Fold each of these.
Amino acid sequence: VSSLPSELHLLACVCTSSEAEMSGGGLRAGFSYQKFVHFALEQTRLRTTLVPHPSQEKFKSIKANEDNTIVNALSFSTSKIRLLRSLTIEQKNSIQVLDFAGFLEPEYDLPIFCANAFTSPARSIVVLDLNPLYDTTERKDYREKYYKNLMHLIHKYTELLPWGGKITSESLRFFSPAVVWTIFEPTEANHQVLYSAFMDYYKVWLQLVDEAVQETSKEKINLNREAQHKYLTWRAEKDPGYPLLKKLLGESLAKDLVEEFLFEGVGALGTKSFLDYFPEYTRDDGTVNKKRSMVGKSFETRPWDARGEFVGVGKEG
Ligand code: BLA
């Protein structure tokens, strides 16, 4: 019940946007990532019961510093999904942000659903993926288990949503061979393709959730928990959206949003620190290096082959 107003708002957006979307060129007044969220929640509800996550209460009504900015935050859990949360930010004729993710309970080794899009009048920067819990190059068994039957998706979209260019190898290790990493001009046609890809990827993920069998080995559950905690720790510290969140919400609220909402679990799923996981970021005085990447950007083209085998050659610079 607590999510009703946001979802009504969301429905309203879907119903009234078509006319504005027809106007074409640049960032359309009516374009919104709300319909992505609406689709995902509706699909999830068809299969399972969504229970509001405790984090929703604090963040569902957050406001940006600027009046023209609408922030929407929703979070749920299900019997298998520990945290399904969505953040959208809309600034009329200016920026549109989507950050949608789903994390399973540690009893499952399922990939993390990850849809991030940052749209300005100039371009849309997009990551859409089932982020692996384990390295798909080192762990061939994990790659076989989840990505073998998923590679058809990237073949379907790679032409319309081409590789976005050089990327830091630090980000790349959290991506799967089926990742959509792309930068495009924010036209209606491009966003329609993105919406279609989002629907396909989300449906596949939901199917995997349905089929997921609970792990019983304590050791494996602990490994799943630590892998998820490492991911949360990385993103809570280095997410490219963080500077913008600070600007829009102020430093303190942005920090709370990142730690208690977007990457909730970073404080509770494990005790290791960022530097325990990523010691290469240690500065001489023992603090965390603020640089996002220590290695630099590389991989001008998609570094996986059609079967999901890593074929990238990392070059510095
Ligand atoms: C840029 N966001 C990017 C880039 C990536 C991502 C790869 C390109 C810059 C780069 O090479 O680092 C997204 N990176 C990811 C994701 C993972 C990762 C999803 O490693 C997962 C492991 N983006 C958002 C949100 C905002 C946002 C919520 O998701 C804002 C509130 C903004 N992303 C944003 C902006 C840029 C960006 C402004 C361009 C500026 C920059 O590159 O610093």
Amino acid sequence: SMNSQLAAEKEQAEKSRNIKAEFLANMSHEIKTPISGVIGMSQMMLSQNPPSYVRENVLHILDSSKNLLAMVNNILYYSKIESNKYTRKEKFFLLRPFLESLFYTMKQTIPEDKSLTLCHDLSADLPLCIYSDALKLRQILINLISNAIKYTPRGTVTLHCTPTSEGLCFNVIDTGIGIKEEHLTTIFEVFEQVDTHYTKEHQGTGLGLAISQQLAQVLQGTITVTSTEGEGSCFSLTLPCRVEQKKTESPS
Ligand code: ADP
């Protein structure tokens, strides 16, 4: 009958989705080992105080291989999400130290020759502790902040965090290239990148936002974006989560 044919087709589609996800996961895993080798070797060469012309080149190798590793990690992440291997692992953790450590990590990633300031603006009435999945929240914020840094040639990137009636709201605001209205929804789809001269020069995998949105769903949160082309963008993550104000709550 029509119904059983549909069911069979659905099952087949599900099967190939799983095969694809598994293939991506295995591939990525296999690729990570040699990349780690290249990174390790470059770091070793740098530690041997090579002449400056060698040093320059090795720094390039190190940079590129780190980018490659980040891409492969994204693909691995995405395939894991696709095969529904992600569940929430929630616990109470201190919010401010969490954000400050993230902020410190992201500061290191700004290229030295870029005149970009990373600021944070944490609301005074932030809860002391929140009950959430710290790793996933961190991954989402890293993706949003890296994009903001990547797509902002100069100016500022601000991480803003404030409690609202819907939950905690994290805004990542940049003064970058912005996004045309017609691209505001497609950028959350897999492998979708806005086709501009600037984005071509800063090739990524087109997975960051798709991953972030799926992770936000796992946390029952939402990501929205507002943007003006040529002026900048604001990506907002709203996270409904239990909060704890008591100072006695023990951290992680
Ligand atoms: P990519 O690896 O290409 O950065 P993402 O999924 O993270 O993939 O982003 C998809 C696309 O959305 C990017 O290619 C870029 O065109 C656009 N985009 C994302 N964040 C920003 C931003 N802060 N400013 C301008 N464009 C952005």
